[in-house]
Amino acid sequence: MFKSFELAGGSTPSGGNSILSLALPLVLMFAIFYFLLIRPQQKKQKTRNSMLGALKKGDKVVTIGGLHGTIMEITDDTVVLRVNDVTKLTFERNSISHASSTAESEK
């Protein structure tokens, strides 16, 4: 009553081979995304966190908004920057983009 179908080569379809052929491209895509996107971003974040942790009084920094200043006071969360002789501005520590020079390099 039921007829079995055969493929052109005379073999029956196998489930193991099709799962492997589907999983291999997914694993390959994940590996490519990891090495091209995820890993470099983690390295960049680690470098930024170490730079923020190494900030100290007297360092010249640039904020994310482009403001240049010298660190006058620093706490765990905030940084007070001297912009000119009389102006002091308070920023979050995470708003520091990069340190343009350190206090030690100027001595």
Features:
five-stranded antiparallel beta sheet; alpha+beta; 25% strand; 2 helices; 107 residues; single chain
What is the radius of gyration?
29 Å
| Cα end-to-end separation | 95 Å
Q: Taking strands numbered 1, 2, ... along the chain, how are they ordered across the largest sheet? A: 4-3-2-1-5
Strand content: 25-35%
Structural category = alpha+beta
Mean pLDDT comes to 86
Extended strand count: 5
The arrangement of helices and strands along the chain is: HEEEEEH
| DSSP helical segment count | 2
Question: What spatial form do the alpha-carbon principal axes imply?
Answer: rod-shaped
Spans of at least 5 consecutive residues whose pLDDT stays below 50 are none
What does this protein look like?
With 107 residues, the chain is an alpha+beta fold. It is built from two helices and five strands. The longest helix has 39 residues, at 15-53. It starts with 14 loop residues before the first helix and ends with a helix. The mean pLDDT is 86.
